[in-house]
Amino acid sequence: MKRIAIITLYDNINIGNKLQNYAVQTILEKMGFACTTIRYKETIKEISWKGHLLALLAFPGRKARIKRMIIKRRKAFKGFSDSWLKTGKAIHFKDAAAKLAGKYDYYLTGSDQVWHNWTDTKEELEYFLLEFAPRHKRICLAPSFGFDQIPDKYMQLYKKGLMGFEYLSCREKSGCRMIEELTGRSSQLLPDPTMALERKDWDLIAEKPAYDLPEKYLLVYILGDIRPEDEEQIGRIAAERGLEIVNIFSLDCEKYFYTNPAEFIYLVRNADYVCTNSFHGCVFSIIYNISFRLFFRTDPEGSRMHSRISTLLDKFDLTGCMTTDAELGELDFTKANEIIKEERKKLTDYLQRALGLIPASLQD
């Protein structure tokens, strides 16, 4: 059985990050590969009772509460990672060549914003462009840049790294455009890997939360601060539909704040309606055919997300989720359900070519 190292962003606090990681792992395992997700830095440490006490002393009042809540959320997410992800020992970017090269048959980078260069360093960029591996072992699967313009100071590093892949793909139209402008090569626009799994695959890991849920509820998954006008609109939608609000990303809703990725799937699947500004909030609403309302973020991170959400909604003909209250209705997923089948095939066909499962003589 051939082995693949998954090179992706790794943390224990982001729902979308965990679920795309699990999706890539599952897709590759279905193809007969053994997978290991490489942790490129140690982001999670076990917190003892002494650690909790020190946190409380260091952050009095509300700050102490927030610190405690984030620690507890990380623990909940680590539980998901331990249960569902196959990971290796953590390494530093600079040690990739020494600790990874030659140990796997293939190295796959993606999905998520792996080409964003979060630390603004040459070492991170070269790591996620798989510079430590030979060309024939490098695969990129629906990666994202998370911006619409490559920084001038890294232009040549991006160009060199991108030219090192036999096959190129991206998750957003803007990313495909940047790749072509920089390298002169075309890349394939692929769906987020979470969409390549069917409902039955996600049902296998869906987990009912330990906390009590209302019989009928509106799921709110809003990243960042909720603007007063958006909060008012969410309340109006809930009132009109007779739903209670379950807000899983608010520091003011502590019992819901520790919802882990497996519980998130359960919540979307059983929701009567979803309000979100999250890419994966939209994705799982589409997978489970749950009508949703999209809210746009106004912070810098939100502007970076706009491209991928626009690509997603255009592709699945679901721009109706951006309607005003006066026009708000149920979304029709008929076309989206057909498109998602095509997108799944597109992603698996791409992977089969990149992994040499389709002989070159039979490729288009």
Structural description of this entry:
The protein is α/β, with parallel strands linked by helices. The chain has helices at residues 15-30, 49-58, 62-84, 96-99, 122-128, 155-162, 173-183, 199-203, 228-241, 254-257, 261-270, 279-287, 300-315, 334-354, and strands at residues 3-7, 34-37, 106-109, 138-140, 169-170, 188-189, 217-221, 244-247, 273-276, 292-294. Strands 2-1-3-4 form a 4-stranded parallel beta sheet, covered by helices on one side. It has a 4-stranded parallel beta sheet with strand order 8-7-9-10, with helices on both faces. Helix 9 links the parallel strand 7 (217-221) and strand 8. Helix 2 (49-58) packs antiparallel against helix 3. The chain is globular and about 55 Å long. The protein starts with a strand and ends in a 10-residue tail after the last helix.
Look at the structure and give the mean pLDDT. Answer: 89
Using only CA atoms, what is the Rg? Answer: 21 Å
Listing every helix as H and every strand as E from the N terminus to the C terminus, the arrangement reads EHEHHHEHEHEHEHEHEHHEHEHH
Largest beta-sheet details: 4 strands, parallel
Chart the SSEs and their pairings:
Blueprint: E1 3-7, H1 15-30, E2 34-37, H2 49-58, H3 62-84, H4 96-99, E3 106-109, H5 122-128, E4 138-140, H6 155-162, E5 169-170, H7 173-183, E6 188-189, H8 199-203, E7 217-221, H9 228-241, E8 244-247, H10 254-257, H11 261-270, E9 273-276, H12 279-287, E10 292-294, H13 300-315, H14 334-354
